[in-house]
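re the bet — no i am not wrong, look at it urself. input seq straight from the record:
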Amino acid sequence: MIDSQARSLLAKEKTTGLSFLLILSALMAITSLSTDIYLPAMPVMARDLQGDAELTITGFLIGFCIAQLIWGPISDHVGRRLPLFIGMVLFIIGSVGCALSTDIVQIVFWRVFQALGACTGPMLARAMIRDLFSRTRAAQMLSTLMIIMAIAPIAGPLLGGQMIKITSWHATFWLLAVTGVLMLLSIFWLPETLPEEKRVKASLAGAFRNYYQLLTNIPFMRFTLCLAFYYVAAYAFITGSPFVYISWFGVEPQHYGWLFALNIVGLMAVSLANRRLVHRYPLEALLKFAVMVAVLAALVLAVATGTGWGGMGLIVAAVLVFFSMNGIIAATAAAAALDTVPEVAGSASALMGALQYGSGIISSLLLALFSDGTPWTMGWIIALFTLASAAMVLTVRVAKKVS
């Protein structure tokens, strides 16, 4: 259900309803695009920059998770639009810096800077949805956004793979800078979803203290950690798959994008189904089901990568099932978590996002520390953290179905 103020806002913006969804989807997709577009170029970047290209992902995620913790309370204090404007400007500057980088230290620095702005997109898109909608409707809207935003991780590796054939990896970051300019202009069409009377009146220092309450809020943290652990596993695939598919199995970089895109198609299909399922089943029940399916897929993947049984075909199939469950897990976990703390949705979304995307730091570090030159490292990391995700929700009580 939508409260009276939100209903009035939507009525005022009814002529731009589709624009609202498309812009929020693009804001949520900016993170995926920022990394996925140059995944096929990572082996080339490592040679050109004479360093570990995976550090560019680690640097981005470090900046991403830390900056969210700052932007969250600010958005609860001043509204959603101003942080978005500033964030896109920072993203553009960071993208240009990456494009001009000549060594690994420079590009890691600019990736951190790029992330300072990129993080405002998905964080505030979730907060804006929670500003307007109740838990079930919010889960449905988040599923809708994921269907649209999934274009980015499909198009990113495909486009990046083709670009690396005809130009250098620098061009991918110039393209991100142009994308940032378009996103900056699109924010002018967004309404402010947090009215003045609902903003946090305390000082910003006081607003930051909300994080302590959130970290000690057991219902909120269960859903948040479920999502964060799942994303440790997901980022293990995102970071490790270029090596597994391109280096280990010999897939051409321009074809890698198709294998990556297959998983996003599965995510889109499950997200589409989830839009209907959230009206029939409690969010907690859907979340438990999706996580357990992901656990089974992750265990199959661990066996396939550890023994070599089934070859690349079984790995691709297991990852497809595992990754598709994100269509339910991300939407239901986020909606259920934010529903427990609606009064500080900005800070809650920031903390959730920091843990969710910061989890990729754990993935990249584990891959770097324990890599044995085979797909097994990626496999056991995915299995371990998917099991941890399941442990967070197995004890969650299924609430009665409410709209």
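see?? Residues 218-248 form the longest helix (31 residues). told u. also The mean pLDDT is 86. so pay up
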